[in-house]
Write a structure and sequence with these properties.
The chain contains eleven helices and ten strands. It is of the alpha/beta class. Strand 2 (37-40), helix 2 and strand 3 form a beta-alpha-beta unit. 35% of the residues are buried. The chain binds S-adenosylmethionine.
Length: 284
């Protein structure tokens, strides 16, 4: 695909399998077979996808630690007429993966950017989870620290769209437990684990029940997972409005522990969540 004219090359954004190599599309295979340069997160992983080639491509590693240098090198190559294919270790580049700066710089430099669509763990999980797909909100990875994670989940409690998170399966129990506390134990949710691989599991249940199920089966704590949680319903939002008013009144009249106990009972809330709500009015 090398050009002799001054025409710049194309930046191809190539989605690759999540685990099942048969999910590499024929077009993705063609683009990888012909690209002058392949930019990969881990070149050892991506080499396995490459069809036999007479002339091997030039490989450029592009990851969080060398991004600015690698981006400049790739932009120069494309300005010089080379076609570059960007791949990540699995799924669609840029989706919780490197590549945003490269695409941003390519647009700024007038280089054509073209997607070769294919697997993406979030979309694969959503398509099989049995939760509403008309609106969804991709949140990527949650913070690793428990306090920050809970805050993030609480900040999403009024979101109506289906929530999507990337979660290493070893973190599923604490994440599901925190989600149950922040969003309600009875929210419907689904875990898609090891999608397209031999031990794929997709399970839909209430948050609290899902946490107990994962806790009880160490196999569910291995590998990679997507967690999907149904958005807030009208009913839940109306109830949370009432509990906010109730919390304010209780906080004004009673000591915090007593107010939180009543709020948890009447509002169907987790005790810790109720206490935090009462405390927020005491500070106000
Ligand atoms: N760019 C990728 C995509 O398009 O899905 C995501 C890359 S991100 C670094 C890796 C995360 O994606 C994992 O921690 C997991 O949450 C999710 N993931 C990747 N492969 C998966 C699979 N086969 N099954 C379930 N989740 C997967």
């Amino acid at each position: 695909m090398t050009r002799t004219s001054a025409e710049p090359g194309t930046l191809w954004i190539v989605a690759t399998p999540l685990g099942n190599l048969d999910d590499l599309s024929p077009r993705a295979r063609d683009v990888l077979a012909e690209a002058d340069v392949i930019a990969a997160e881990d070149t050892r992983v991506s080499r396995k996808l490459l069809p036999p080639r007479e002339k091997p491509p030039r490989w450029v590693a592009l990851h969080d630690h060398n991004e600015s240098r690698a981006v400049e090198e790739l932009i120069e190559l494309m300005i010089g007429g080379r076609d570059v294919a960007l791949v990540s270790d699995a799924g669609t580049p840029l989706i919780s993966d490197p590549g945003y700066r490269l695409v941003d710089r390519a647009h700024a430099a007038g280089i054509r950017v073209s997607p070769v669509p294919g697997p993406c763990a979030a979309i694969a999980a959503l398509s099989a989870a049995g939760l509403a797909c008309d609106r969804f909100c991709f949140e990527g990875f949650l913070p690793a620290k428990a306090g920050q994670r809970r805050k993030r989940l609480e900040s999403l409690s009024r979101e109506r769209a289906t929530l999507m998170f990337y979660v290493p399966a070893r973190d599923l129990v604490p994440v599901l437990t925190d989600a149950a506390a922040a969003l309600g134990a009875n929210r419907l949710a689904a875990v898609g684990r090891e999608l397209t691989k031999r031990f794929e599991t997709i399970r839909r249940d209430r948050l609290e029940a899902l946490a107990a199920w994962v806790q009880g089966d160490p196999d569910q704590q291995r590998g990679e997972a997507v967690l999907l949680i149904e958005g807030a319903t009208d009913e839940a939002l109306a109830r949370s409005l009432d509990t906010t008013l109730l919390a304010r009144e209780l906080a004004a009249e009673l000591p915090p522990a007593r107010a939180a106990r009543i709020l948890a009972r009447v509002g169907g809330m987790d005790r810790r969540e109720a206490f935090a709500l009462v405390e927020s009015f005491r500070d106000a």
